[in-house]
Amino acid sequence: MLDYLLSQLLNGLVIGVIYAVIAAGLTIIFSILKIVNFAHGEVFMAGGYFSYFAIALLGLPALMGIPAAMLLCFLMSLLIERTLLTPLYSPKTERKGDYGVLATFGVSILLRNLALLVFGSYPLRPPSFWSGSLIVGAIYLTWDRVFAAGFGVLLLALLVWFMYRTPWGEALNAVGQSRESASIVGIDSTRFYRLAFGLGGALAGAAGALVGPIYSLSPSMGLAPDTQAFAIVILGGMGSVPGAIIAGLLIGLCENMFVAFFPDPSRALTYAQAFSLVVLMIVLLVRPTGFFGRRHMAME
Amino acid sequence: MTRSLAGQAALIALAAVVAVIFPHLVNNYWLSVGITALFYAIVAASWALLVGYAGQFSFGQMAFVSMGAYTSGMLAKYYDVPIPLGIATGVVLCAITGCVIGYVCLRMRGPYLALFTVAFSEVLRIILVSEAEVTGGNGGLQIPSLFRGRSDLPYYYLGLVLLGGSLALMGWLVRSRWGLFFRAIRENEEAAAAAGVKVVRFRLLAFAIAAMFAGLAGGFFGHYVGILTPDIGSVDQMGLVVAMAVIGGPESLIAASIGAILVEFLLEALRAYEQWRLVLFALVLLLTVRFARNGLLALGADSVMRVFRRRDAATPARTA
Fold it and tell me: Which end of chain A has less Cβ packing within 10 Å, N or C?
């Protein structure tokens, strides 16, 4: 029983890191463009497929699938931002929050159905980054999971460095805190909106590429992470990257512990999907500003 | 003014005549498409009432549809409750749940509300999937039909009556003082409250009323199809309703329901293209959101009106 709990714990940590990568991307978009991006899960899904096809069609080594997915997701996000999100910057648009929801919700329907059409509904499984498993005593963890967690941690560290130690990161933060003040000190906010949306997409794409060999790819794989990432973003305090990382690990862990302790194993897996949704609802009800502060990040 | 009123009356009469003779012009397949279209039209109109008029951005309408359908279906299946009574129970349950959701969401606006209602619908769907002994799970729940005969005609006419009744009720509501309060809340909650609108009461009412119509549509459609699956309340189904209402025009009940009927018929007519049609509709939805936020029908009606007005303005000039 202890071994089972321990391996559930480790699996929870791995998933938590992936959640944190997805949520960190979402939180950047959320804090800077001030929209709830309903298409984030679909960009994550696209990242998985981009990596798969970069490996399968171009013959890249498995590891190169991740940067390929990040680059393609970055470009795809730029395309979405240029074509659909520019009304958010115009003072003429009424009720921008609703516009953002409708536009990104439309993108998510489009991408999901486009994926069904192009990739088919059969699950695809990309090649392993690192085959075999890590076995210590009775604990069993595939190397793919270890690798995904390690790479995720690396990405998150890079992101924190970028956000807090580089001029671009500081400019992003400034635009997130106040559009007007950022303009006064000479920051071209539109450029940073674009950067934020692209960066968020690239992170989602990386997460998609990382989970490919662990689970398999399907056009609907973005549905669950989307709401999970929202739960994490709001729990971690909107716009706070460190908050999103902590909350991501927390949700990943709790979800796996929930499965381990749920009395009826046949229902545990389906109810596990509801776990983060219920967390999301409770956080929205009890403390809409999250547990890590950042009140100024509230929606307009 | 009187001319446009007469025009409206003529249009409604024409639509009614077409709707009444429609089943006699088509085969059974298209009749069932027609019934489905009527169902979606009620749901889209209820979404337009909540989102377009009251400004409460909710993705929960299909969850209320499934709540109405499952309540009535399970009452009829397990307790032999007469179906009309079951549907009424479903409607009441939806109204209560709508009130509760409206109440707990009082502090939330716009995108937060959208998120909360998405989470609510998904939790409901997951419960319906998980409690398979009672709900049938993903395999579906067989429930009794509303009418005994083999023919779909009674369903069609009942759906037509329901749609007409719902539109009349909701239309009367939005033209009443309450409708004015709804729109005031949509535009600016603080200003509305300052002007004496009971914001809390009317936000709850908007949720409850919209949920009731969704539950009614769900009960009707559930007993027509005869088999319920948790997928009725899925995000994809909600996306379809949103697309229908937005393409038609979310700020008009009639435009939203016409949008629903058009989209449903086009979806069936383009069935040969399978997945492409959903991609196509997603694209149309995005274009509408981006360039014509009041809906394609409103845009079309506007440009027609403009042409007429120009002609009206031109005629006296020529005679003078």
Answer: N
